[in-house]
Amino acid sequence: MKKVKTTVIGSYPVQINNMELMKKYFNQTEISWEKYIKKAVEDMVNAGIDLISDGQTRDPFVNIFFRKLKGCRIRDRAEVIDKIEHVEPITVEDQKYVKTLLPPGKELIGLLTGPYTLTKTCVDLFYNDEKQLAFDFADALRKEAKILQKHVHMIGIDEPFFSISIPEYARELIVKIIKGLSCPTRLHVCGDVSNIVPKLLEIPVDVLSHEFKASPHLFNVFKDYSFKQHICLGSVRSDDTRVETAEEIKTHIEKGIETFNGRISQISPDCGLRLLPRNVAFQKLKNLVKAKEAITIW
Ligand SMILES: [Zn+2]
């Protein structure tokens, strides 16, 4: 079986502190983001995670993009006030910095917040056409992905809103971003996706990532389909401070192996761990790694 990797999803609970934010807004001083990224990456490395991200410490996962895309502004909420355009790299500098922190053998995943989720989390004052807005976000993300692929081992697209209301053009939207990329891709959709599995399986990413720990009935749903994608198996909860034991996680992974046979390529938390205390998040990652290493058939 090819090497199965432990990895992370979304945001990690290293928050910029309020004093620094106040200084930035009142004194217009620049914040040194590096120390926040460094804390998140160090936790992932120390826990033994194989495929690491920047932890999205800079901003909430949607604002990272709204802040740098032309056509958006952030007030109480993000607003779209003009045509969306990619005018400068958004995540690339952070990825370059993460790379300098990685010990040999570790890999890097670059995270993009999906176009549909961006569309659903802003106030549209310009397009008045949800589909057009979503496709313009996708076009901007395609440009970001083209640059990003040179610096990472994999690109992950996070579309939590697909589980709430998946549009009929979901496949087309994601294909617009990933078409022609030279690195592998992952689509993460959290929440209960049991009603949209056929639609998700139409999307030609390399890896599909879902919350199998919070929604264990997904094992039975996926069992009914044959598909090409690999699975990133959500194996610890992101909404519960209880730290799952390595033994419990191992049993969960074994259930995944039984269901998907050779199709599991990644083991991860269910979603981003940002809402958990940092020590809880770290312990969850540690036990995840321990559990994965205890599986002898790998
Ligand atoms: Zn998620």
What is the topological layout?
Elements: E1 5-6, H1 18-27, H2 34-47, E2 51-52, H3 63-66, E3 70-74, E4 78-85, H4 92-101, E5 107-113, H5 115-120, E6 122-124, H6 130-148, E7 154-158, H7 170-178, E8 185-188, H8 197-201, E9 207-210, H9 218-223, E10 230-236, H10 246-260, E11 264-269, H11 278-293
Parallel strand pairs: 1-11, 2-5, 4-6, 5-7, 7-8, 8-9, 9-10, 10-11
Antiparallel strand pairs: 3-4
Bound molecules: zinc ion.
Provide structural commentary.
The structure is a single chain. 38% of the residues lie in helices and 18% in strands. An eight-stranded parallel sheet has the order 1-11-10-9-8-7-5-2. A three-stranded mixed sheet has the order 3-4-6. The longest helix is centred in the middle third of the chain and has 19 residues, at 130-148. It has one domain (5-293): TIM Barrel (Alpha-Beta Barrel), CATH 3.20.20.210. It has 298 residues and is an alpha/beta fold. It has helices at residues 18-27, 34-47, 63-66, 92-101, 115-120, 130-148, 170-178, 197-201, 218-223, 246-260, 278-293; strands at 5-6, 51-52, 70-74, 78-85, 107-113, 122-124, 154-158, 185-188, 207-210, 230-236, 264-269. It is globular and about 50 Å long. The mean pLDDT is 94. The chain binds zinc ion. Residues 9-10, 160, 188, 190, 271-272 line the site of zinc ion.
